[in-house]
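Notes from the 1:1 (GR / supervisor)

We went over the backlog. Supervisor wanted to see one worked example end to end before approving the batch request, so GR pasted a single chain during the call. The sequence is below; no edits were made to it. Supervisor asked that the structure be written out right there so they could see what the output format looks like.
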Amino acid sequence: MTDPTANPAGGICLHQILADGTDFVQAAGATARSYFRQHNAVEFKDDESPVTVIDQRIEQELKKAIAAKYPMDGIFGEESGVDGGLDGNLWVIDPIDGTRSFISGNPLFGMLLAYVRHGAPLAGIISMPVLDELYCGAIGQGATCNGAPISVSDQRNIDDCTLYINEGEKLMAEHPEPLARLLKAGKTRRFGYDCYPHALLAAGHIDAVVDYDLKPYDYLALASVITAAGGILTDWQGRALDLSSDGAVVAAATPELHRALLALLND
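Structure output shown during the call:
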C-alpha cells in the first residue's frame, strides 16, 4: 500500500519538492550574499516596509527557477504578487525575510520558500544565507538543518521555557496587555525579529516564539518546518495556519507549552 505521506500533494513527492526547493534557494542565497553590506538603495512601500532591488531580483530568480521546473504550479511572491492561481499547488516566496536587517548589515535576515496545496502548508524551507544554515521540513519527512535531523525541545513548563517575542514595538502599540503578560513568562526572554527565532525553535535551541503582523509569505514556510520538527505553530486562537490567517502566531515545542501561551495571549 502506498504511504499517503509520500505523495500528499496530488502525486507530487514532497522529498523532491524539498530537494528542488533547496536548489532554488541556495542559488538565490548566493545573490543575497553578493549584495549584503553593499549600501544598496532602499525604497519604502505604502505600509512603510522597506524594499530593495535585491528583494525584487531574488524573487524573480526564484520565480523563474520554479516556473521552469513546475510550470503548472502557482507562485505567490511578496514583491510581485501571484502568477497563476492560489488554489491547487502553490509556491510562496519571501525573498528577504528581514529587509530591515539586510539593509542595516545584520546577518539574521532569511529567505523563505513554502509549498502549499489548497491553502495549507505541506513543505517549507528557511534559508539563512549569511549564516550558511538551511532548515527544511515537510509532512511525513521530518525536519533538517544542513541535512542533519533536527527536532524541537521537550519543554512543557512555561515557567522554565526560553521565549522569543518578535515585533515587540508593534505588540506594545497594539496589544500591550498580552505583551505585559508575556514579559513575565518563562525563565529566559528575548526580543527578536523575522524568521530566525522560529528556526531556532525547530532546532531545539529555544522553546517558544510569539510573533505578530505576519503575511502568508512570512509564516507558511515556518509552519511546515516547525511542524515537521515536532512543534506547533498556530494563530493566537490555536487555529491551523493557511493563506487567510491573520498573521498573529504562536509557536511552541510541546502541546502543554502551546496551551499555556494561548492562555496568556487570550486572558
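Supervisor's comment: The chain has two domains: 14-150, 158-265.
Batch request approved.
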